[in-house]
């Protein structure tokens, strides 16, 4: 007999269940683990964005930049644009933004308390 509907999702970590909010330090650990698990930048951005939808993209960008050396040359705003492209444009949108951002001149960070 199949498991009862209320048992669905029990194998998921609590932080992946709908409506769950986690403290910032725990979310940061999750993001670090996801960035390490997916070597492909597109896949890493997609999975972080999909699993942390409750966090603003600006916050996700700062967190992701901490754990992805391939984003060192990008500003926080660039990473926000990449996240938006991943969500709205899929792989082709991501690649288009990646090409344009990689060649654009870098701007100074607008948030003095955030280290890009």
From TrEMBL:
Stated name of the protein: Uncharacterized protein
UniProt source species: Pelomonas baiyunensis
Lineage: Bacteria, Pseudomonadati, Pseudomonadota, Betaproteobacteria, Burkholderiales
């Amino acid at each position: 007999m199949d498991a009862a509907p209320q048992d669905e999702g029990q194998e998921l970590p609590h932080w992946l269940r709908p409506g769950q909010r986690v403290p910032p330090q725990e979310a940061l650990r999750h993001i670090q683990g996801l960035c390490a698990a997916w070597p492909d930048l597109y896949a890493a951005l997609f999975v972080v964005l999909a699993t942390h939808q409750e966090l603003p993209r600006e916050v996700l960008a700062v967190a992701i930049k901490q754990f992805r050396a391939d984003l060192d040359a990008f500003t926080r705003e660039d990473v926000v644009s990449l996240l938006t492209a991943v969500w709205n444009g899929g792989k082709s949108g991501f690649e288009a933004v990646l090409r344009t951002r990689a060649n654009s001149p870098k701007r100074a960070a607008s948030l003095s308390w955030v280290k890009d």
